[in-house]
User: Fold this.
Amino acid sequence: MYNYFALYRPVNLLFIALAQFLCAYYLDPSASINQLWSIGILWIIMGTLACSSFGYWINDFFDTERDLINKTKTYDITVLPRFVIYMHLIVFVLIAVFSGQMLSPLFLYIYIFTLSSLSLYSIILKNIAFLGNLLIAFLSFISIFMLLFLFPDIDYALLFHFAALASILTLCRELVKDGEDAEGDRLTSAKTVPVLFGTNTLNISVYVLLIFTISFSVISLYHQRIYFPETLRYVYYLYYLLFILIPLYTIAVDVRYAQHKDEYTNLSLKIKYVLATGILSLLFF
Assistant:
């Protein structure tokens, strides 16, 4: 049963749901739980989680051979009867489409675009250097920024900050995971960044992205000073320094020298940690 639920990536789904809820609640000064509920926070979270689950399942389905080589999965999805896999995918699509209809035509189009993009990613784009990585990063940005279409009173600048941060860190993690899975990608003829250009190019790309993220965050922090009274501002700055900026810097240093699978696995977990601390920083607003 544990292995079955692992197919859903429950920690990732928790991050997504928490990020959407906290952004909607804390980035709008006048928001209340009842207001979020009545406008449709439940439907936007359900639709997003359905799309994410669809992406995880269909990617595992098409990635079975590669996962066996890389030994990155504890559970082989193909042990499930094929009709069971298809039924799950259909249910995910139905939940996403129904959630979009409960919100507005715009969200219906967003969810259909997301489902189509994830299908294309799993079949083709994940095997193309940078293209698949950029698509997942873009979908990560959309999953946060689309809250503005449902909750127009959310602070635009802050929402953009958190959506951009999630997107860039997701891109870094996707590239690092390519380094982690390089052996399986090479044996299955995937044209990912480490296969085509080598790990040095991969490492430099992630390093540049992380340095950009640190610079972007520092500039954004300067502009965020207006949201806090002086005492809380310095507490927020200290939190951001200790739990986001310093970890990002150590990851940037470590990635320059990464070569082996276990090193990339460790870096992926560290980026996931920063994503979590970034989400929790919303509690200051």
